[in-house]
Each structure stands twice: as C-alpha cells, then as structure tokens.
Amino acid sequence: MMIEQTADIVQIIQRIPWFVELDQVQQWRLAQIARICNLHEGEILFSEGDSDNCLYILLNGEVVIENHVPTYGKTEIYTAAPLDIIGWSAATSMVRQRTGSARATQPGRVLCFDSELLMQLCEEDHDMGYIVMRRIANLIASRYLSARLELYEIIARRQSKAD
Length: 163
What we know:
Layout: H1 6-14, H2 24-32, E1 34-39, E2 44-46, E3 54-69, E4 73-80, E5 85-86, E6 101-114, H3 115-124, H4 126-162
Antiparallel strand pairs: 1-6, 2-6, 3-4, 3-5, 3-6
Helix pairs in contact: 1-2, 3-4
C-alpha cells in the first residue's frame, strides 16, 4: 500500500470528473480523508457481506464486481474501469455490508475514502453532500440496471438449458 501526500491527492481529485463541481476547499477536505492504495492482480478489495467502510474510485487497472447467486455460483456483474466508483454501499446508511465482491483483474490503484468521514463531510457541507449523494444515487441506479440485466441473462440461460 502506498500513501501519498494530501497535495498529491488534491491534484488527483481535481482530475476526476466526479468532483468537477466541488470548489478547492471541498476538494482539499476530501483529500484529507483519502489515501491511494495499490492493487495487485488477483487481490480481493472486499468480499460480499464484509462491513468494510471505504468507498473507492479506481484510478487505473481493472476490478471485477461479483455476486454469489444461490444454486448458480459466482457471477460477474460489473467490470470497473478507471474512474469508476467501487464499494458505494459503504456510503449508504441503510446498507452496511458489501453487496458484492471486488477483485483486481490487473494491477492498479484506487483512491480510498473513509465512508464515515465522507458522510460527516457531507453533513457539514450540504452543497458537497448534495453533489456526492447525487453521484452515488446515479451510480446505484445504473448498477441496479446492470445487475438486473445480468440476472435476466442467467434466467434465460437456465431456461434454455431446461428446454
């Protein structure tokens, strides 16, 4: 794991479109609760059911998100590419455990935010909170749609095998 200086993290945050609406003070405050971590190929970032409290932004590399589907097994539901958010469930008050597993399929780096500190910042600065939560809500809707379509594919494959 490599930890970079806050000023370096601010520069990284400024290049992430997700944070383009934040001002410099908000970006600096985010950088203070973030760290950069290296990922190795095959490394498990988190597992389904974990209560890890980090929200990640993939800076480079590739991470596959998987779910265990009863009677079917492990299923890839999403492949995260650079600038994708991983582990959004840590930033929601209702879902306090991981809804999937994340595994690096190639070396990379992630920007890690402590979700409790992130939520605290959002409470203190409602403008930042609105921007962050709007992004997370859009992400959840998109991932829900992707997971739903993958589930339909699984059902269709099982149905065709049964026929």
